[in-house]
Amino acid sequence: MFTGCGMITGQNQYLIRDAVRPLPGLEGSRPIQIEHGLPSGSFPVYHNQTYSNVVQPAVINNVSIPLKPVPLPVPPPALKLGQEGFKKVCRTEEDSPCPFPGLASGVLEMRVKEGSKIRNLMGFAMARMQGEKGISGGGVSGGGLRQVVFTGSGRAVTKTITCAEIMKRKVGSLHQLTKLQYKVVNEVWESSEGGASEMTVHRTVPSISILLSKDPLDPQEPGYQPPEALSALWEEREGVESSPQTACKRTLGPLPYSSFPHCKRACLGEGVSVHAPH
Amino acid sequence: MSDPRTPGMSSVPQAAPVHTDSTSPAVEMDPVEYTLRKRLPRKLPKRRNDVYVNMKTDFRAQLARCQKLLEGGGHREICVHGLGLAINRAINIALQLQASSQGVLQLAANTSTVELVDDLEPEDPDEAGEHLTRTRNNSAIHIKVFYPDPQ
């Protein structure tokens, strides 16, 4: 499931797998040479389906080591460092710049993790946003915070969006600003046999930050969504292009592509991977 | 066990196979068995520059498709959509596009909730159970990947 899903299309991508695995007898010497001969920064790992779970051995799709030139075009099989006799010792997340410049410092930030329970997150966040109703009685907008940020990375991205969507639905008339960025995660792996050999792996993990605000935000900012834009997204889209292909829903069946000329065009040159017009 | 209709078998209702006939004593205790059938998401807009990301197609193929649209297809912007588990992949594609453009491309992400319908069909057509549908929500993301207008 994780194989071949996501790597940078770039050049000079090599597989650590080939550097390590074919040397069963040399595992003591050669990998160490690799690990110590290079600064740790030269191990960029582009990893898409993240494992933020510390317990499980991470699956790494693509590690680049400038030793053995294995060109990328072959989809690299998922590499399990854990199976190579490596153990993850520590994992640190590099601080990424705040995606919302000019945001007040006191904004509530909900850091959504893979294992976070939505009810816990929402229970806390909703209470803060709505304020303590019991105290002030019925202040219209007196209580509660004006803004909240949900952030999550890797496999917590979906949960982050779900939290924001729930909050938008419950609170209502919230302005939204969504930002995407890569987050850099450093992992230190230690060889279980070699003892002293260490390896630092840099992984980039997609992360999302969603700012929900009761106050208006800049509509010109990319990623801005006005309040109650729930269904408007779709209708606006459909109106934009008087699409002749309302019938072009997912007809994956035996229909020949020629009945969808535009789709055919989009699929031209796709070679092996045939994209059905869906 | 071989024949759940044997009267003597009724003393072990838990052990009865699940998919036996309605006469099986186990089925009387259990609610009717249903097959869960997930309908496809409702009709979505599909322009030439809309890309719906799924988890079945190879990632690189989908990324290449987006790149082709932006570079060869002459589109100034494309929309990458992802639903549920594919959100991650959609974000990845968008970020990869941005990275490979040396930061020229900009991203504008919107989120939404998509209502999905599940059909519950009785396993056995003779069964008393009726056809049920159930709706649930799933999150979706729509990322506009575009070249900013020259100012």
From TrEMBL, chain A:
Domain DNA/RNA-binding protein Alba-like: 109-183
GO CC annotation: nucleus
Family: Belongs to the histone-like Alba family.
Protein name, per record: DNA/RNA-binding protein Alba-like domain-containing protein
Lineage: Eukaryota, Metazoa, Chordata, Craniata, Vertebrata
Keyword entries, A-Z: Nucleus
Main location: nucleus
InterPro entries according to UniProt: Alba-like_dom_sf, Alba-like_NAB, DNA/RNA-bd_Alba-like
Native source species: Pagothenia borchgrevinki
UniProtKB/TrEMBL annotation, chain B:
Spans annotated as Disordered: 1-30
GO BP annotations, alphabetical order: rRNA processing; tRNA 5'-leader removal
Pfam (any one): Rpp20
Gene3D superfamilies, per database record: Alba-like domain
SUPFAM superfamilies found in the cross-reference section: AlbA-like
Family in the record: Belongs to the histone-like Alba family.
Function description: Component of ribonuclease P, a ribonucleoprotein complex that generates mature tRNA molecules by cleaving their 5'-ends. Also a component of the MRP ribonuclease complex, which cleaves pre-rRNA sequences.
GO CC annotation: nucleolar ribonuclease P complex; ribonuclease MRP complex
Keyword Acetylation set for record: no
Annotated keywords: Cytoplasm, Nucleus, rRNA processing, tRNA processing
Name under which the protein is recorded: Ribonuclease P protein subunit p20
GO MF entry, a single one: ribonuclease P activity
Bilayer-crossing regions: none
Organism: Dissostichus mawsoni (Antarctic cod)
Subunit description: Component of nuclear RNase P and RNase MRP complexes. RNase P consists of a catalytic RNA moiety and 10 different protein chains; POP1, POP4, POP5, POP7, RPP14, RPP21, RPP25, RPP30, RPP38 and RPP40. Within the RNase P complex, POP1, POP7 and RPP25 form the 'finger' subcomplex, POP5, RPP14, RPP40 and homodimeric RPP30 form the 'palm' subcomplex, and RPP21, POP4 and RPP38 form the 'wrist' subcomplex. All subunits of the RNase P complex interact with the catalytic RNA. Several subunits of RNase P are also part of the RNase MRP complex.
Subcellular location: Cytoplasmic granule; Nucleus, Nucleolus
Keyword Magnesium set for record: no
